[in-house]
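Lesson 9: reading folded outputs for more than one chain in a single document. The general rule is that every protein is listed as its sequence immediately followed by its structure tokens, and records are never interleaved. Here is the first one.
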Amino acid sequence: MSDIITIADLEKTYHSGHQALKTINLGIKNGEILALLGPNGAGKTTLISIICGLVNPSGGSVTVDGYDIIKDYRITRQLIGLVPQELTLGAFETVWDTVNLSRGLFGKKTDAAYLDQLLRDLSLHDKKYSEIRTLSGGMKRRVLIAKALSHEPKILFLDEPTAGVDVELRKDMWQIVNKLRASGVTIILTTHYIEEAEEIADRVGVIRAGELLLIEDKQRLMQKLGKKQMTIELRTAITQIPAALAEYDLELADSGEQLTYTYDTRSGQTGITRLLQDISQVGLTLKDLNTTQSSLEDIFVNLVHTE
């Protein structure tokens, strides 16, 4: 799969001296969903703003479908749709007028059939003649997406698309994103909701303090950096972990009937077999065993808090 966006040695330092981006190198594949994770101030929005032509870089280059974002600004901007964090909409305009005007601003001919279907796909069709001020926050977020898609872009940027949106509407948004990807749109989203990336992303990038810490296939990332926990249920409660099991760094639940063992999935020797043997030797009887894999959230927290 070829890259539709190529970022090479990209840097951004503001007049204040703050370096928002530090030598970012990244290729975004055509048709993928890429999730960019990072704490506030990590540089996610700055990166998106540069690619979309809203902020000038201090160094490096970005090409979109082979076109340079500075030399070929008009072409690259037409290839991109952007859904910003802020609800920037005219209060007294109708939904239809908003998306129709946005399409015209990109030089696209009027296409009522396309816009009509777009509003249907976003569950906005029954609100097409409603003024923006009468809509809920979730509906306004959908209008922003419709506005960004009005000119039929090949790439869609979603900057915190579900911020302030309830859980039910958030899941609807995931379905919308998957439908767009199925139609061939490349999607890049920034999010604070880790489950969002875990649910829909093909690849995950983690940014901290302007640096891209990693970019990895989601499943491979969880396999490489994740840890597993084995929960051991005992038939009889204990008040403390036997000294003979100290090397395993077990955790004892308050009930005294459950031991938790954490191990690295990358290790050739997990120690499980020897642990179970030692548990038997100290006279403990097992009732049940189960294992759980670290979530993407666990991995993210570990990465951004590692100095």
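And here is the second record, again sequence then tokens.
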Amino acid sequence: MKNNTTTWLSLIESEIRRLKFGSRPASLYEPIRYLMSLGGKRLRPMLVLLAYALFKRDVKKAMPYAVAVEAFHNFTLMHDDIMDNAPLRRGKATVHEKWNVNTAILSGDVMLVHVYNLFLSLPPKKLNQVLTLFNQCAAGVCEGQQWDMEFETMTTVTEKQYLGMIRQKTAVLLGFSLELGGVLAETTPANCKALSEFGTNIGIGFQLMDDLLDAYGDPEKFGKQVGGDIIANKKTYLLLKALELANEKQHAALNQWLTATAFDPAEKVKAVKTIWDQLQIRQEAEKKINAYFRKGFQSLEKVKGNKTAKEMLRKFAEDLIARQH
């Protein structure tokens, strides 16, 4: 088998198509097949395989468990879309829009059950280890989502609280994906820990980059409305840093926009970004992003595995970072 990510991506897609979800009632299982077929980067299963390949060549053996991680990720998306009242996912109607909210809740629930079924083919000793790590990760994702919702009504959120939230909501699943690859390949605890830290730190970097692109990205490349977070008063790293660094006059102006109920969206985005530019918020965010990416790659350096596979994992991560810009 050619050791490249294109081959593996097509194997992941084939494995997803082969997944056996239930059949009746169709309205329970069809939404799962629909969501899983919408595609996406398949980043998490790819990280499982890339980490596994550092230590073993028979990557196909890790495939069912890589796909289990993708199924879990999609379960979180199904429920997140309900909470966010999102109409679209990857350009198509979300499950709760195409069917209804109750069906989306139940389909998500049974999808999570199926994730556990996919892990059940592991040998007993490994099953215990994997499920312990998975349960810690899954609980963290839920806690992160809850914190994200609570931040909406909190008057003050610190930078530390925000970074903790994105670590749980987004980054720990990337860390788990890489650690899982190491566990499946039966490498050392030190290698598994370094892989987990690598994934978690680049995951935080990706989320911070997402915050930055929301305000400063090219709308053609970003695929979303630029300034959406500003319009919605979302407590991103950029806003929290601005509130921390602002002088009295800038603070008052920011608060005026944050509390305004009637405003022109384009005017609000322009006014807020003008204050951010005065405070060099873009540069502050870029410094923080680069610090997390640097920390992540330092952890990858500690991993002792196949040099070619390690270079492939590094290149995959670097390409993802470059694509985000």
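What the second record shows: The radius of gyration is 21 Å.
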